[in-house]
Amino acid sequence: MKELLIRDGTIVMKYKPEIHQRRSIRLKGYDYSQEGAYFVTICVDNQECLFGDIVDGKMFLNQAGEIVVDSWTWLTQQYNYVDLDEWIIMPNHLHGIITIMDGRCESNARTTSIGQRKSIGRIIGAFKTVSTKRINILHQNVCARLWQRN
Hints:
By secondary structure, the protein is of the alpha+beta class. 23% of the residues lie in helices and 27% in strands. The strands form three sheets. It has a three-stranded antiparallel beta sheet with strand order 3-7-6, covered by helices on one side. The protein has a two-stranded antiparallel sheet with strand order 1-2. β1 and β2 form a beta hairpin. The longest helix is centred in the C-terminal third of the chain and has 19 residues. The radius of gyration is 19 Å and the shape is globular.
């Protein structure tokens, strides 16, 4: 039997962590910090269109969309082993290819050993944190959730 709660006059099923678990789409045992190219899609919570509009087939970013661009490109400044390939921001999500490398060949860049690299999940987590904080400041929200989990 399902447990039901009534919230604001609406019947909702009670959350039970022992049965309501999101399945991970990650490959068990795979090291997501290893060198390679990773295609990611990062969606806004509740599919809200927060980053701009598409007009005549072209994406026009608003201030929040520009913050997402800045936060996305910040990843290459923060992590010397991260490179961004193709990416696009849509009204309610971002698609991108992130490449994790052994290290950059630039003379002034520090190299990062494999054990020190963050996994793709941790890198995306950093992006979500930075972009959420900046967009919350823009909208004068405190601790508002921006991105979907996982």
